[in-house]
Amino acid sequence: MKAPPFRYHAPDDLASAVALMGSLENARVLAGGQSLMPMMNLRMAGPDHLIDLGRIADLRGVEERPQGLRIGAMVTQRTLEKSDLVARLCPLLSEAVTHVGHQQTRNRGTLGGSLCHLDPGAELPVAAAALDAVMHVVGPEGARDIAFADFPMDYLTPSLKPGEVLAHVTFPRAQSTSGAAFLEFNRRPADFAIVSVAASVSLGADGVITQASIAIGGVSHAPMRLSQVETSLIGARADEAVFAGAAALAARTPCDGDELYPADYRQDLCGVLVRRALVIACKRAGGVAHV
Length: 291
Prior knowledge:
Elements: E1 7-9, H1 14-23, E2 27-30, H2 36-41, E3 49-52, E4 62-65, E5 68-72, H3 77-82, H4 84-89, H5 91-97, H6 103-108, H7 111-117, H8 124-130, E6 134-139, E7 142-147, E8 152-154, E9 157-158, E10 165-171, E11 178-185, E12 195-203, E13 209-217, E14 224-225, H9 227-233, H10 240-250, H11 263-285
Parallel strand pairs: 1-3, 2-3
Antiparallel strand pairs: 4-5, 5-10, 6-7, 6-10, 8-9, 11-12, 12-13, 13-14
Helix pairs in contact: 9-10, 10-11
């Protein structure tokens, strides 16, 4: 099928894009188009106006700032994958992006497009949830920041006000004592994840876990932080018994199910993947006792 008729706009700066979003009815921004264009072709989306952000240079930067790693919404996933700066300052994001689709889709797909599309099986929103990313948006009323925990509003629906555009995302800088891991389970490589896990931990000199953040995807309309699991890890020594306890807690996470993958199947996957991710993350952080 072909997309329904629409008007195409290609502003040169962010202010012009925001003005168009505020003045046109039924308008959508176009980032990489890897999700929006198929939806339009299948008549699942039918905007009257497409506002292409591809010419806006300010949305493409990757830079280190005091607050952390600031990345433009239009930075492609392939750029993230190949960036030494991203690998050094935010290894969890660097690893997560390698699981996104195929290289051909990562060449066009963007950070902002994936985060705003909020597909339940997508990888980058899970990493953003685990890392407490901050979303910088600009709209008719000016600029504002949104914690990623407050960004998903509903299925495929970010908490953007009418006319707002995601401009940049800030990820915290990884600590020298931390390690991270991203794992997912799918039927074939590049398929959307049935369950995915993003984990980051920090270890003290004695091997005790001093910080833990774990997010899972594929189990609900938006990524979910496993706060109870995180709390159980703080102050515990990184060993097999602790990982087994964390896995048991994760396996009790409420999950959505369907005809192919029932809720209890996804719960089992949560437990398995959380344990594996913690083992990998702790090894990368500096060591694991008795594993």
